[in-house]
Structure formats: structure tokens, C-alpha cells
Design brief:
It contains 15 helices and 13 strands. With 429 residues, it is α/β, with parallel strands linked by helices. The strands form 2 sheets. Strands 3-2-1-4-5-6-7 form a 7-stranded parallel β-sheet. A 6-stranded parallel β-sheet has the order 10-9-8-11-12-13, with helices on both faces.
Length: 429
């Protein structure tokens, strides 16, 4: 008998979180939920193939994919290839124009792994390249929760509409083919088998309207943060630690990749090209790569992977700009507000949902550089109550709030699953 990877305390359900990685926005959000659940006594396991996953309690790096002896020989003789490799080759041949895409292939042995077979509930997160669509939903009969971090689960190969619209016709055709295949693969899945969770109402609406996931139960649960870390720190201390100027006002821009078109930093460059907008303000830029803001003092801080350093960075600046062309519920907005720093955001996606104007900052009127410039100029003239911003954000986004919402969901799923099993047994001869 295979040894269970869970603690098996007997005090509650065993939850297996599946994610392609614990890094990047989706991975960070997923690991924060896992940590919060473990903090309140839930038997939670976070499983990923990413070898960078920490060797700590509750995190598991999945072993190499198991393949039969015959399949290994055929692969070595180049008589066959894994579906993941075939999809990688197919996607690389597309006219993608630099856009990130992912196919429906994953590791074929995933449904048989102990982290799945011993779990009471399987909780999917961002699972691109890990989830085998062709087999997973037929073979895994446990209750499923799927927290969506972008549109890819109910689209084909694209993760956002703005990405799809930038690619060539061949990529868009394949996207539609994959989307229709997803519809077919989920057609036989009972509606009560899968619960879809979205962090934003915007993504919830799109998923409910989709042909792939629309018939399943949906719930909105915003991301949660450790508010002992993401809280206001003295600005002078924070600036000193990060090497930022002790005086002068600072605007912060943050992105995993500063040149990511979807994140809209080029709009920020255009908005700040006018010297009348936030005059004499410096720009702090966090993320990989560099951005040039003409006529501005720019202070690059690179990629900060430590949440404590990010909390110091938010505390060190006067305003945070999130100019996304399309986004779900960016961690940057929630983290900034929890640290008491006001934000200026675009009206796209779920970005406006976190901003209560004018207390938390401003939402620009349209997705243009001119609109961004107007919002930045107006925000620069407001005297924000940073303590009020932080207190309100803590009440909404503390990880205990998120963990409680998921615990309630898990409980309802197990009760419902037990009731279905009981009803099924009554009709057996």
C-alpha cells in the first residue's frame, strides 16, 4: 500500500493543491493560500513539478513522469514522443509574436500519483503544462476545486484575450480547436464534480459565460495576504534599506517582466512623458528588464522575490501605478493597499474591484496614456490617509479571511459528495 503524503491527522479533509509553479503571480497566490490553510490546521499539500519548490513541510516536488518500459524504449528509438513535447513543438511553430501560450498536454501519470489518490479534494491552480486534459477529468473522481488565475482554462491556448488578439491566424485557429476540445472533454463531467473559484468578479463573469466552464458552480474568493508582512513600515527606514533617495516623491511600477505588453508599462512611459504630470517625481521600477522614462530619475530595484522586501518597497513610495491592459486581480494592488500605499489603476479586468475611490487611489477613465496621465496628476494632489488604506485592506485581504472562505467551500463539497454517495447506494439493487 502506498504511503500517504498527507499528515492524516483525522481532524479534517486532505487537500492537494496542484500548480505548475509556486512562482509568478498565480504561484505566489496559490502558495499563500496553502500556507494560510496549514496555519489554521488544514491538512494541505502543495504539489508542483518546479524543482525550485522549498524543501519544507507541506510542499512536494513531483517525481519525474513515470513511463512504461515499452514507451521508454519507443521514445529512445524516436518511434514516439510525449504529448507535452509534441505540443511544445506545435506551439513553437505558431505565429505567436512573442505571446505566451500553453497547450492541453500534461503529465500522463498525474491522476495516479499518491498526492491525488490520497487527497479528499484536489485543488487546481495555474496548471498549464501539468494538467493532462485528455485523461484527468475522467480518471479523477474526487471533488475538484479550480482557482482560475487567468482565462486559459476556459479558452484554448491563450491566457488573455489581449494576447490572442496580437497573434497570427494560425494561432487563433488552434486556440479555437483546443477550446472546442475542452468543451468535449468536460461534457460528461457532473456539474457538482467541479467548483470554479475566481479571485475577481470580472473573471467570474467571463467563466460563467464560457462554453467550457459555464455550467459548473462558481464562487468569488479574492486573494489573501500575510498582513503581518504586508503592512506599513516607516518610509525613511524602507528607503534606507533599499537604497532609494531619502527625499522626494516616488512612483512605483512593478511587473514580473517590465516589457510585458499586457502589463502596459509602455502606457506608463507615455503618460509620464509630460513633465507637468507628477513634476519632479522619481520612478522606482521593480521587475526583470528595464524601462526608460524620459526626463525622470529612475531607480531600478530589480526582481524582489522576498515579500518582506516588497513590503518595504511599497512603504518607501508615495504611489503605485498598475497600468495593465488586462489582468485578473493583481497581487501588486492588494499588497500595496495592505502597506497603506495608494494606487492608480486602469479600468481593465479585475483591477478596479480592489480600489475604493478616492480612499485607496484612483481608477483612470479609459485604457489610454492620456487617461493615465490625468489620473496620476489627480492622485498626486490628494493627501491620502495611508493608515485608513491599510486598515481597510487588512480587513478584506488578510489570509485568514481567504482561508475561512475556502474551508467553508471544502466542507460543503465533502458534505455534498457524501450525500451523493448515499443517494447512489440507495438505488443499487
Amino acid at each position: 500500500m502506498t504511503h500517504s503524503p498527507f499528515q492524516n491527522t483525522g481532524s479534517g479533509p486532505c487537500i492537494c493543491h496542484l500548480a505548475s509553479t509556486r512562482f509568478g503571480g498565480p504561484g505566489i497566490a496559490a502558495s499563500r493560500l496553502h500556507d494560510a490553510l496549514r496555519g489554521c490546521g488544514v491538512d494541505s499539500l502543495f504539489a508542483t513539478e518546479d524543482p525550485r519548490s522549498p524543501v519544507t513541510a507541506g510542499y512536494v516536488t513531483l517525481p519525474p513522469e513515470h513511463r512504461s518500459f515499452v514507451r521508454r524504449i519507443m521514445t529512445r528509438l524516436r518511434l514516439t514522443q510525449s504529448s507535452r513535447l509534441l505540443w511544445e513543438q506545435k506551439l513553437n511553430a505558431l505565429d505567436r509574436r512573442g505571446v505566451f501560450v500553453s497547450g492541453p498536454a500534461g503529465r500522463s501519470d498525474l491522476p495516479q500519483l499518491p498526492v491525488i489518490t490520497h487527497a479528499d479534494i484536489v485543488h487546481l491552480h495555474w496548471v498549464a503544462g501539468l494538467l493532462p486534459w485528455e485523461s484527468f477529468f475522467n480518471e479523477v473522481t474526487k471533488p475538484l476545486v479550480w482557482t482560475l488565475h487567468d482565462m486559459q482554462p476556459f479558452k484554448g491556448i491563450f491566457h488573455y484575450t489581449v494576447d490572442r488578439d496580437r497573434t497570427g491566424a494560425d494561432a487563433q485557429r488552434l486556440n479555437e480547436q483546443v477550446r472546442l476540445r475542452k468543451v468535449q472533454l468536460l461534457r460528461s463531467l457532473r456539474p457538482e464534480h467541479l467548483t470554479v473559484v475566481t479571485p475577481s468578479r470580472w473573471l467570474n463573469r467571463l467563466s460563467v459565460q464560457s462554453e467550457v466552464l459555464g455550467r459548473f458552480r462558481h464562487q468569488v474568493i479574492p486573494y489573501g495576504l500575510d498582513t503581518q508582512i504586508f503592512r506599513a513600515w516607516p518610509a525613511e527606514v524602507a528607503r534606507g534599506i533599499l537604497g532609494l533617495p531619502a527625499s522626494g516623491r516616488l512612483l512605483l511600477v512593478v511587473a514580473e517582466r517590465l516589457d510585458d505588453y499586457r502589463k502596459g508599462l509602455d502606457l506608463a512611459v507615455d503618460a509620464l512623458a509630460c513633465s507637468a504630470v507628477l513634476p519632479r517625481w522619481g520612478i522606482a521600477a521593480a521587475g526583470a528588464g528595464c524601462m526608460r522614462f524620459a526626463g525622470r530619475d529612475v531607480f531600478p530595484v530589480g526582481s524582489l522575490n522576498d515579500p518582506r522586501l516588497m513590503a518595504l518597497l511599497y512603504s518607501a513610495v508615495d504611489l503605485v501605478l498598475v497600468p495593465s491592459r488586462e489582468d485578473n486581480l493583481p497581487n501588486v494592488i492588494l499588497e500595496s493597499l495592505c502597506c497603506g500605499t495608494p494606487v492608480v489603476v486602469t479600468p481593465s479586468g479585475g483591477c478596479p474591484e480592489a480600489v475604493f475611490e478616492p480612499r485607496d487611489g484612483l481608477v483612470c477613465k479609459s485604457l489610454t496614456a492620456d487617461s493615465l496621465a490625468c489620473a496620476l496628476q489627480a492622485a498626486g494632489e490628494i493627501k491620502f490617509d495611508r493608515a485608513a488604506i491599510s486598515a481597510a485592506a487588512h480587513a478584506r485581504y488578510d489570509q485568514s479571511v481567504t482561508a475561512a472562505a475556502y474551508r467553508s467551500l471544502y466542507h460543503s463539497l465533502l458534505v455534498g459528495s457524501a450525500r451523493l454517495a448515499e443517494d447512489s447506494s440507495k438505488v443499487l439493487p
